[in-house]
């Protein structure tokens, strides 16, 4: 269950062959099963017998043989919103525990990964348009955002508290100290910072209790500082990345308070610590939790074995909303993670800003490439240009050398030249190619991409340019056409108002959800490509920063960067409408999202096809429109408990997860999930011959009390959709109404059919997206 982090292992192995050793398995020496960290989840802490460390320890002690008393301690204990603990258990002990009366689930403690793009090759530019459009009122309600990530760099100008008022009394959190982090590093903006013992102590049972290891709330990676400043950073003028993306950086809601929970390092995030951080954040009094981290899409088992799903479930019961990135495993279907209905799941899209680097060939033709580089090369000087397959080491297959895989290039033939590499092997990332050609002393590299990679690779001062197939063919043709082909790669410049935008990022994970197809996921899209935000100002050794100076801002890509945009938008709406429930705010953002781009056309994917709901959910967030959605779908805690019943969990376990006297509905089937009161509709299976399928919804009127809404339907030909009633009339005192939708697929084409229902009252359009799979 260990998931690779975003540093490509292949590249590390190539350059540090000794790293192979830790992976050697001594297959036949172990006789005794070795204990591993497990999470033992025991439901809600708010029902009758709330959890405490004593009872958890007793439970553990009853299980572990006396000669192994050194294992009788809790690595983490959960007792604020949820109940449970993590501890070292053998497989057998875990299975015995999972049958225990008070236990809901027991699962190994996986390492979750950060949702920046594949390597950390991403980048980001703050689009002033999408981020600074809305007016902010200083005396609006206080909203506290909890960021669970790699920690925080408190000195960043994004966390300046000059224009922020007193810390609200509802805040119960702490500012933990360490050798490099003082209480004074917290302020009225960054109101809390916690850290957790790191993974090292979890890899083997400790003789003693896991006393505090060296740790700190301080971010050493940059991911957490970037996401926190995107969600709630204050306005910073003249922010840029070495002059690129120059402009005003600001978070989605600059008046939000930020509390940082450092649960992750560069190696990922232990699930047991994520769960602890969520439990702490709820106790501390945060309003929204933002998590740009997830389990690998290949290892999703079910909702009750997923720490984020469990934590978010309890957060939601306590009125705390959880926003998560959907993952970067796109564009394949079924790659979306963090897909529980009580989580707000975010896909990534582009903004109208590109970074281009000009390639000038010896024949004076020039081409624009996608890149972020601070190339020292100048237009005046050109270098020999060669295709990778022509400079292979002996016995290397041409297919390896044309992709510039490690070990395939002959340094003697490469030195001083610009190399052209194909990007045909998904396991040889851009970052690996850069390391390979740099290692062989090449002057620069041009990467030809079949499928357009949408996130520009940040190669620092190294001249790297990326082109599509069409331009790539022209460059290869030029190489063929002349005796001594030459070229140069110029430093990147910024292109504003690029079109079309937004476009769904190719890396953004796609629906449908692998666990159930009866909830539509992802929910919504937000900017996640080339976003400028605060980072840790340090110089990466491999990187070569311009002028060898550090930058306070960095450009990153990933659904990690999209998630805090939605978090910030929610905080903003919450501050204007403090009495709306978070599911109403989620609904408001979803029914008002935009499906058009800056050319007035339907939003597309990177292959220029209209994007469907499994790619963008309901579309791009429009926070201003969401302030006045007209109607809302209020998904209640009961809806979520019913969801667990329909999904098939046993009634006793569900009851222990809730502090109410909850009973599963009498009839329970997976298809009933389609009728929980979600702002979108998904039917995972509809047989052509089964006749009309009924789905129910309840809407709450948030607009003026006298309103009449009429429905219209957008459906692909063949799929029959009927809304009953067609018209809904609200009056004073009657602000809730229900409607039914019937889907009949007898003439529909097989596979997924997408469409929407629109409720219109003369001013508000309430758009309800549906996805129906016909069989
Ligand atoms: C930002 O840059 C402009 C022009 O370079 C300058 O006039 C202004 O003073 C700068 N503002 C800050 C806050 O540095
Ligand atoms: C390219 O342009 C430069 C300057 O404009 C000129 O000196 C050179 O002869 C041109 N080369 C070719 C092959 O046209
Ligand atoms: C990448 O995958 C190909 C097969 O798809 C394999 O032949 C090659 O060895 C892999 N390369 C690396 C560096 O892992
Ligand atoms: C370049 O020449 C090789 C043969 O030497 C040929 O296979 C290839 O298709 C040519 N490429 C282009 C783009 O003309
Ligand atoms: C860049 O700066 C770092 C310290 O900030 C220093 O260790 C390194 O030698 C410098 N590199 C160059 C090329 O000046
Ligand atoms: C874009 O959508 C089309 C049509 O649904 C699909 O065939 C194509 O694979 C998609 N492209 C990407 C990059 O997802
Ligand atoms: C829980 O509800 C059921 C019926 O919904 C009722 O029979 C039972 O007495 C209730 N239990 C408690 C403890 O309130
Ligand atoms: C709504 O309609 C009722 C009856 O028609 C009227 O008395 C009331 O003033 C109206 N309310 C608003 C806010 O327009």
TrEMBL record:
One GO BP: proteolysis
Domain Peptidase S8/S53: 142-617
Top-level taxon of the source organism: Eukaryota
EC numbers, comma separated: 3.4.14.10
One Pfam family recorded for the sequence: fn3_6
Enzyme class, spelled out: hydrolase
Entry keyword annotation includes Nucleotidyltransferase: no
Annotated ranges, domain Inhibitor I9: 38-115
Domain Subtilisin-like protease fibronectin type-III: 676-772
GO molecular function ontology, one term from the record: serine-type endopeptidase activity
Start-end of Basic and acidic residues biased regions: 209-221
Key words, A-Z: Hydrolase, Protease, Serine protease, Signal
Signal sequence range: 1-30
Gene3D superfamilies attached to this UniProt entry: 2.60.40.2310, 3.50.30.30, Peptidase S8 propeptide/proteinase inhibitor I9, Peptidase S8/S53 domain
Protease listed as a keyword: yes
TM region(s), chain numbering: none
Active site positions, chain numbering: 149 (charge relay system), 223 (charge relay system), 560 (charge relay system)
Annotated segments matching region Disordered: 204-227
Xref: InterPro entries: Peptidase_S8/S53_dom, Peptidase_S8/S53_dom_sf, Peptidase_S8_Ser-AS, Peptidase_S8_subtilisin-rel, Peptidases_S8_3, S8pro/Inhibitor_I9, S8pro/Inhibitor_I9_sf, SBT
Protein family (similarity comment): Belongs to the peptidase S8 family.
Name of the featured protein: Tripeptidyl-peptidase II
């Amino acid at each position: 269950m260990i998931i690779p982090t975003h540093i490509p292992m292949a590249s590390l192995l190539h350059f540090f062959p000794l790293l192979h050793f830790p992976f050697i398995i001594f297959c036949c020496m172990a006789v005794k099963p070795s204990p591993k960290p497990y999470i033992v989840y025991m439901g809600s802490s708010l029902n009758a017998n709330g959890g405490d460390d004593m009872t958890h320890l007793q439970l553990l002690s009853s299980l572990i043989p006396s000669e192994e008393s050194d294992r009788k301690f809790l690595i983490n204990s959960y007792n604020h919103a949820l109940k449970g603990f993590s501890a070292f258990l053998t497989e057998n002990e875990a299975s015995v525990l999972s049958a225990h009366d008070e236990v809901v689930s027991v699962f190994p403690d996986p390492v979750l990964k950060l949702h920046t793009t594949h390597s950390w090759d991403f980048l980001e530019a703050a689009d002033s348009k999408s981020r600074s459009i809305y007016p902010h009122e200083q005396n609006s309600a206080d909203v506290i955002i909890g960021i669970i990530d790699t920690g925080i760099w408190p000195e960043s100008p994004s966390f300046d508290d000059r224009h922020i008022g007193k810390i609200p009394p509802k805040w119960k959190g702490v500012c933990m100290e360490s050798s490099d982090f003082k209480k004074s590093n917290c302020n009225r903006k960054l109101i809390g910072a916690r850290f957790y013992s790191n993974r090292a102590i979890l890899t083997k049972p400790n003789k003693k209790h896991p006393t505090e290891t060296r740790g700190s709330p301080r971010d050493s990676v940059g991911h957490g500082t970037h996401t926190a400043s995107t969600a709630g950073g204050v306005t910073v003028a003249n922010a840029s990345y070495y002059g690129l993306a120059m402009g005003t950086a600001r978070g989605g809601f600059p008046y939000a308070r930020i509390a940082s929970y450092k649960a992750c390092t560069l190696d990922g995030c232990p699930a047991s610590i994520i769960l602890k951080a969520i439990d702490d954040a709820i106790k501390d009094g945060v309003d929204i939790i933002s998590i740009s981290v997830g389990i690998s899409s290949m290892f999703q088992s079910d909702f009750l074995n997923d720490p984020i799903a469990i934590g978010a479930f309890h957060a939601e019961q306590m009125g705390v909303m959880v926003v998560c990135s959907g993952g970067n495993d796109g564009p394949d279907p079924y790659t979306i993670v963090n897909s529980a209905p009580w989580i707000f799941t975010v896909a990534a899209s582009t903004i109208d800003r590109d970074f281009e680097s000009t390639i000038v060939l010896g024949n004076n033709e020039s081409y624009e490439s996608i890149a972020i580089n601070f190339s020292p090369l100048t237009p005046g000087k050109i270098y020999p240009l060669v295709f990778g397959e022509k400079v292979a080491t002996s016995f290397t297959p041409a297919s390896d050398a044309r992709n510039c895989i490690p070990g395939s290039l002959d340094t003697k033939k490469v030195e001083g030249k610009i190399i052209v590499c194909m990007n045909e092997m998904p396991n040889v990332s851009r970052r690996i190619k850069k390391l390979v050609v740099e290692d062989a002393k090449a002057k620069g590299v041009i990467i030809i991409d079949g499928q357009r990679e949408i996130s520009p690779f940040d190669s620092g001062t190294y001249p790297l340019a990326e082109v599509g197939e069409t331009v790539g063919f022209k460059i290869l043709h030029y190489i063929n056409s002349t005796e001594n082909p030459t070229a140069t790669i110029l430093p990147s410049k910024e292109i504003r108002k690029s079109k079309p935008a937004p476009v769904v990022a190719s890396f953004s994970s796609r629906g449908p959800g692998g666990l159930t197809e009866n909830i539509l996921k992802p929910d919504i899209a937000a900017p996640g490509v080339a976003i400028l935000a605060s980072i840790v100002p340090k110089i990466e050794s491999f990187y070569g920063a311009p002028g060898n100076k550090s930058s306070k801002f960095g450009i990153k890509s990933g659904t990690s960067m999209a998630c805090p945009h939605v978090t910030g938008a929610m905080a903003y709406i919450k501050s204007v409408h403090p009495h709306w429930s978070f599911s109403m705010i989620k609904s408001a953002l979803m029914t008002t999202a935009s499906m058009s781009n800056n050319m007035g056309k339907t939003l597309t994917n990177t292959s220029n096809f209209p994007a469907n709901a499994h790619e963008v959910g309901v579309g791009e967030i429009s926070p201003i429109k969401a302030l006045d959605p007209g109607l809302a779908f209020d998904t209640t805690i009961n809806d979520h408990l019913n969801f667990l019943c329909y999904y098939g969990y046993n009634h006793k376990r569900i009851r222990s997860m809730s502090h109410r006297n909850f009973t599963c509905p009498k009839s329970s089937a997976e298809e009933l999930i389609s009728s929980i009161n979600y702002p979108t509709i998904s039917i995972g299976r509809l047989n052509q011959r089964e006749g009309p399928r009924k789905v129910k919804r309840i809407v709450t009127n948030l607009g003026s009390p006298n309103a009449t809404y009429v429905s219209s339907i957008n459906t692909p030909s063949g799929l029959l959709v009927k809304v009953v009633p067609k018209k809904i009339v609200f009056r004073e005192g009657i602000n809730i109404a229900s409607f039914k939708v019937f889907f009949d697929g007898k003439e529909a084409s097989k596979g997924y059919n997408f469409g929407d229902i629109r409720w219109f009252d003369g001013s508000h359009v309430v758009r309800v997206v549906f996805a129906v799979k016909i069989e």
